[in-house]
Amino acid sequence: MDTFVLREPEWRGFAAHGQHETASTAIDVGCGRGSMSGAMALQGRLRSTGYDWSEAAVAVARESLSHPLLSFENHDFGMPVRPIGLQSGAVDVICCRFVLQYLDLPAFIAHARCLLRPGTGTVYVVTQVREEMAKHSLGGEGLPRAVIAELRDQWPTAPLWPVTPRGEVVALALRSARRAGSR
Predict the structure, then answer these.
(1) Torsion angle defined by CA atoms of residues 90, 83, 68 and 35, in that order, rounded to the nearest 10 degrees
(2) pTM of the prediction?
(3) Cα within 13 Å of Cα(65), Cβ side
(4) Of 21, 93, 119, 126, which has the fewest Cβ atoms less than 10 A away?
(5) Distance CA 95, CA 86 (A)
(6) CB–CB of 144/130 below 8 Å?
(7) Cα–Cα distance between 55 and 60 in angstroms, integer?
(8) pLDDT higher than threshold 50 for residue 182
(9) How far, in Å, CA of 180 to CA of 178, rounded?
(10) What whole-number distance in Å separates Cα of residue 130 and Cα of residue 142?
(11) For residue range 55-83, what is the model confidence (pLDDT) as tens digits?
(12) Quick check: 123 and 178 in contact, CB under 8 A?
């Protein structure tokens, strides 16, 4: 699957589950060429900032996409510092398309919880399911089912839906983050 292309089933799922009706601010972690950042700004009408560790990816995104609600910045979410100007509790949607497998998951989720607007924030995730990828001879990339299930268990609301017909790529919307230590 081309991870840069935003397909209709993914956008429909995002529109249905990935944003609260009052959402206004989104960040796209590991934005690559910016397809999701652009869609959130153009179709979702969210003030969207795409972040990528690659200066080349940010340059391509800036060159190919332009909108008043859209910006791109260079930042590595694998590092323990937050991007300049990003305040705690100020983000409605944190988008993570095909990037969680490359991050320190517990550290990133703790960081995301801090950034999300209390009560309405959503972490929108698209990932390959490692076992399904291997079953269809597509390689062993993505997150294992057990990690996806554990991640979903940490959030009060966590719908999951297939992005591809065979379910080798799924999306989930992790909403209404629990406070650390609560169940």
Answers:
(1) -100
(2) 0.90
(3) 24
(4) 21
(5) 15
(6) yes
(7) 9
(8) no
(9) 6
(10) 5
(11) 999 999 999 999 999 999 999 998 888 89
(12) no
Q: In the β-sheet with 70-74, what is the strand arrangement from edge to edge?
A: 70-74, 47-52, 25-29, 93-97, 122-128, 169-175, 160-162
Mean pLDDT is lowest, of 3-12, 22-31, 138-147, for 3-12
Burial annotation 141-161 (CB, 10 A radius, 16+ → b, else e): ebbeeebbeebbeebeebebb
Handedness of CA 111, 40, 7, 118 (dihedral sign): positive
The tens digit of pLDDT for each residue in 138-164 reads 776 889 999 999 999 999 999 999 998
Place of tokens 């988008």: 95
Which residue reads 């800036």 in tokens?
62
